[in-house]
Specification:
The chain is an alpha/beta fold. Helix content is 29%, strand content 14%. Helix 5 crosses helix 6. It is globular. The N and C termini lie close together (10 Å).
């Protein structure tokens, strides 16, 4: 089913730093809606919000515990894993990376841990990935395996990346076949939320057929 670009739902007070394009102008991109997330993690350098501990509800002693099903019946009763939510942020190929950066800023501001986020590019590598790869593949993938920070991968590396709760894709160029390959892979790597920044018609044609 074609995806309809979502209206921005982030309050102005929750905005993170706005990404700046190579020309020095601020990229006017829609603001993404952070998806479902676990309890907020403290961001580096500042304490996280305090959350009240919910009361523990105890079952009455005179209520018999229900038996746990086993065998084929247990497998039949198990719920199927939920598909990640998909959010589309319209952007040109030149502005897709800026839109992805702003999406990451807003996710972190909303309480997502940096290690929850994977960013994928279909065209030119993200500057962070290019810098880290200059020290060698081993160092680059060691940071991926540590899982404590946002990780950036391109079309050739996304197949090796592990699943993370949120995957942000910047359709920032590359061939149509690259986008057709990356988007289904990114969808498979997203545990809760897939955010795609790029041309809506291209993204809908790929996700509608491949996901």
């Amino acid at each position: 089913m074609p995806l309809i670009p979502e209206e921005p739902q982030i309050h102005e007070s929750a905005q993170g730093p706005r990404a700046t394009s190579a020309s020095g102008r601020t990229a006017p991109t829609p603001r993404p809606v952070p998806g479902p997330r676990p309890a907020a993690h403290p961001r580096p350098g500042r304490p996280g919000p305090l959350r009240p501990t919910p009361p523990v509800q105890r079952a009455p002693h005179d209520v018999a515990a229900k038996p746990v099903p086993s065998g084929p019946a247990a497998h039949a009763a198990a719920p199927a894993p939920a598909s990640p939510q998909i959010q589309l942020i319209p952007a040109s190929a030149d502005g897709a990376l800026d839109a992805a950066e702003e999406a990451v800023d807003l996710l972190l501001e909303s309480g997502r841990a940096p290690g929850d986020v994977l960013v994928v590019t279909t065209g030119e590598q993200h500057p962070w990935a290019a810098h880290e790869l200059s020290f060698g593949e081993a160092s680059y993938w060691a940071q991926h395996d540590a899982g404590d920070d946002v990780f950036y991968a391109d079309a050739t590396a996304v197949g090796r990346a592990a699943t993370r709760p949120v995957v942000v894709v910047a359709v920032n160029g590359g061939s149509d076949s690259a986008a057709a390959t990356v988007l289904p892979l990114a969808h498979g790597r997203a545990g809760a939320l897939l955010i795609v920044c790029g041309d809506p018609q291209q993204i809908n044609s790929v996700l509608g057929a491949g996901v």
